[in-house]
């Protein structure tokens, strides 16, 4: 597969993984291992550095890039504070901005997200903002320094697939930065669909963590992402809504030339 | 007054005449509704919905998995004081009960904090009886300053405060408020709260909202099940939670489902809430409020608590003592009520793991 470059780093795997909702850290670790992901996101607020047994970082393979997220932030200011804390704790300089002030649907606040992205990009963070799909907001995020943009496919945890397909497609077509579909992907086939659309990567959490067998499901997702990417690169055959008649109605137009 | 007006609309619904018209189809529709309304919630609390507990459990389980995954947060309460000026008919801390009164000083609080944090717990709920004189806001602030060194999340369960008092506590590091209305029915409220400032129904009812205005992270509300008809109380709790969720979407709203436990003090006639009733309330709550936190305390026996995992519970207390200084002190005081599940934190963790759930000790930190 062609590699994806974000923040100057070349990634072989286009599947990003979340760490929430697993039955235990061990099954999370095994899921990560089985799919070969290189980018793993985690809620900084859940990291318990004091505890060897419960410190989630201990269970993330050392060769993975940590993508701490600002989950719990309700505005730009809180997101910035969490990002700085993550760096101070030694989590590197990648940060996924999540600014959510709606606990009912967990929909992101694009305006506050843009503000936080601008501040953190200036400070040298590799910023990956989670957002509601919107072309203008996406462009602004790139303008202020986002390394990639992460629109949602449908609300977090719903496993409903890419309900925002039209909007995400426009973002993929128009924005000059990697578009990573985050949230809502519930099945490997939907991850493949996102990749066929031209998404640079997908982030999956609930669909793997809450499946009957996270290890196998993670593997299934990695294969689907790969298949989707190959299909995208191979350029899908054109689809047409009209049947191609074997004797076209306008065929006579060329007949005089014979 | 907005909350009172809002609750007023639902208060006078004749639940039982509504229930009498319900069909099985109505219940099935409510269970599978994409976005259940308040009336769907009421339907799920009906006697006829009691025949659909399995269907409700399936749906509640799916919703819980999607929103919270296989994890349950563990926390523990810390009783700072049992001084109380109220006379509640259901509690052993009431002012006329001749129990030994005690209030922890800051050194004692620190000792307790060390004991508890050594167990790995990072979330603490501090409680006092209701006495502004013995445990003024300044005392609570001082306690929070001490506890901050040991815990990542501090919640309070104290007498209702004014908005600026909540703001001061939030400023020093409190992020959660638990306050139970105890009974939503005003007549019963007045009856069981015999004397003391707690008699002021609306000041208590509006306390969670004052905390939301003061920008608290989470509020946890509830009715003490057993004081009144549980269907009515569960319904009004849901109405209250829904109101807060809609008006303060940035606040994490949780619901507790405490049932009355044996205690030292008076005895009244309780409305019996059986296990299956408690389960019905939890399932209805999960379906109606998919993202609300649901807390089940050690009031419930361990077998029941174990079986509730996966049906909607998001938070459980562990390693609980309801006595003042109960974690470290050898000099015992009276407990507020008898706990039923006496397992240690390690045992609770083990139980969750064996059920395929992750015990979460920390999911918040001050920034
Ligand atoms: S329930 Fe609270 S207010 Fe009532 S007597 Fe007990 S401690 Fe006091």
From TrEMBL, chain A:
GO molecular-function terms, A-Z: thiazole synthase activity
Sites where the protein binds 1-deoxy-D-xylulose 5-phosphate: 157, 183-184, 205-206
Enzymatic reactions: [ThiS sulfur-carrier protein]-C-terminal-Gly-aminoethanethioate + 2-iminoacetate + 1-deoxy-D-xylulose 5-phosphate = [ThiS sulfur-carrier protein]-C-terminal Gly-Gly + 2-[(2R,5Z)-2-carboxy-4-methylthiazol-5(2H)-ylidene]ethyl phosphate + 2 H2O + H(+)
Main localization category: cytoplasm
Purpose of the protein: Catalyzes the rearrangement of 1-deoxy-D-xylulose 5-phosphate (DXP) to produce the thiazole phosphate moiety of thiamine. Sulfur is provided by the thiocarboxylate moiety of the carrier protein ThiS. In vitro, sulfur can be provided by H(2)S.
Subunit structure: Homotetramer. Forms heterodimers with either ThiH or ThiS.
Gene (name only): thiG
InterPro entries (alphabetical): Aldolase_TIM (IPR013785), Thiazole_synthase_ThiG (IPR033983), ThiG (IPR008867)
Protein known as: Thiazole synthase
Annotated organism of origin: Serpentinicella alkaliphila
Keywords: Cytoplasm, Schiff base, Thiamine biosynthesis, Transferase
UniProtKB/TrEMBL annotation, chain B:
One Pfam family here: Radical_SAM
Keywords: 4Fe-4S, Iron, Iron-sulfur, Lyase, Metal-binding, S-adenosyl-L-methionine
Superkingdom classification of source: Bacteria
Biological source species: Serpentinicella alkaliphila
Claim: Iron is one of the keywords in the record: yes
Cofactor: [4Fe-4S] cluster
The protein's name in its UniProt record: Tyrosine lyase ThiH
Ranges annotated as spanning the membrane: none
Start and end residues of each Radical SAM core domain: 70-291
GO molecular function: 4 iron, 4 sulfur cluster binding; iron ion binding; lyase activity
GO biological process, one term: thiamine biosynthetic process
Gene3D superfamilies named in the record: Aldolase class I
């Amino acid at each position: 597969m062609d590699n994806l470059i974000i923040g100057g780093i070349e990634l072989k795997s286009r599947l990003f993984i979340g760490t929430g909702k697993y039955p235990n850290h061990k099954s999370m670790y095994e899921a990560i291992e089985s799919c070969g992901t290189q980018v793993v996101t985690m809620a900084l607020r859940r990291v318990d550095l004091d505890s060897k047994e419960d410190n989630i970082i201990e269970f993330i393979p050392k060769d993975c890039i940590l993508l701490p997220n600002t989950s719990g932030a309700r505005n730009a200011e809180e997101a910035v504070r969490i990002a700085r804390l993550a760096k101070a704790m030694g989590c590197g300089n990648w940060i996924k901005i999540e600014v959510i002030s709606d606990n009912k649907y967990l929909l992101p606040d694009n305006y506050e997200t843009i503000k936080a992205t601008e501040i953190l990009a200036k400070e040298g963070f590799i910023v990956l903002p989670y957002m509601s799909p919107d072309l203008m907001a996406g462009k602004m995020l790139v303008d202020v320094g986002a390394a990639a943009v992460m629109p949602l496919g449908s609300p977090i945890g719903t496993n409903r697939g890419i309900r925002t397909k039209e909007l995400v497609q426009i973002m993929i077509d128009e924005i000059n930065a990697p578009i990573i579909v985050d949230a809502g992907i519930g099945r490997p086939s939907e991850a493949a669909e996102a990749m066929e659309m031209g998404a640079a990567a997908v982030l999956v959490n609930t669909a793997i963590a809450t499946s009957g067998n996270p290890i196998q499901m993670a593997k299934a997702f990695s294969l689907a992402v790969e298949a989707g990417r190959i299909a995208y690169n191979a350029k899908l055959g054109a689809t047409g809504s009209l049947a191609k008649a074997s004797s076209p109605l306008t065929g006579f137009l060329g007949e005089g030339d014979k | 007054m907005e909350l009172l007006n809002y609750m007023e609309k639902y208060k006078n619904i004749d639940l039982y005449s509504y229930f009498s018209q319900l069909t099985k189809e109505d219940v099935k529709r409510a269970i599978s509704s994409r976005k259940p309304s308040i009336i769907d919630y009421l339907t799920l609390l009906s006697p006829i919905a009691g025949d659909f507990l399995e269907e409700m459990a399936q749906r509640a389980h799916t919703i819980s998995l999607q929103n919270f995954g296989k994890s349950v947060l563990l926390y523990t309460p810390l009783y700072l004081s049992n001084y109380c000026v109220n006379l509640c008919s259901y509690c052993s801390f009431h002012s006329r009960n001749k129990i030994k009164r005690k209030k922890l000083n800051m050194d004692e609080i620190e000792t307790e904090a060390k004991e508890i944090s050594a167990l790995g717990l990072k979330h603490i709920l501090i409680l006092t009886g209701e006495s502004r004189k013995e445990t003024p806001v300044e005392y609570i602030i001082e306690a929070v300053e001490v506890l901050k060194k040991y815990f990542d999340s501090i919640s309070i369960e104290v007498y209702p405060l004014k908005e600026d008092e909540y703001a001061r506590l939030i400023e020093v590091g409190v992020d959660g408020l638990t306050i139970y209305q105890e009974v939503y029915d005003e007549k019963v409220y007045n009856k069981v709260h015999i004397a003391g400032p707690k008699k002021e129904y609306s000041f208590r009812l509006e306390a969670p909202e004052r905390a939301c205005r003061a920008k608290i992270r989470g509020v946890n509300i509830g009715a003490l099940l057993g004081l009144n008809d549980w269907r009515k109380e569960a319904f009004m709790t849901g109405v209250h939670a829904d109101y807060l969720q809609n008006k303060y979407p940035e606040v994490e709203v949780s619901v507790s489902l405490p049932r009355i436990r044996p205690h030292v003090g008076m005895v009244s006639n309780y409305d019996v809430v059986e296990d299956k009733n408690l389960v019905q309330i939890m399932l209805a709550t999960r379906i109606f409020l998919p993202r609300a936190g649901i807390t089940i305390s050690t009031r419930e026996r361990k077998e029941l608590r174990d079986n509730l995992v996966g049906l909607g519970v998001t938070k459980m207390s562990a390693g609980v003592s309801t006595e003042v200084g109960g974690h470290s002190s050898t000099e015992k005081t009276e407990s507020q009520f008898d706990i039923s599940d006496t397992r240690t934190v390690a045992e609770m963790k083990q139980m969750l793991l064996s059920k395929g759930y992750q015990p979460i000790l920390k999911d918040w930190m001050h920034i």
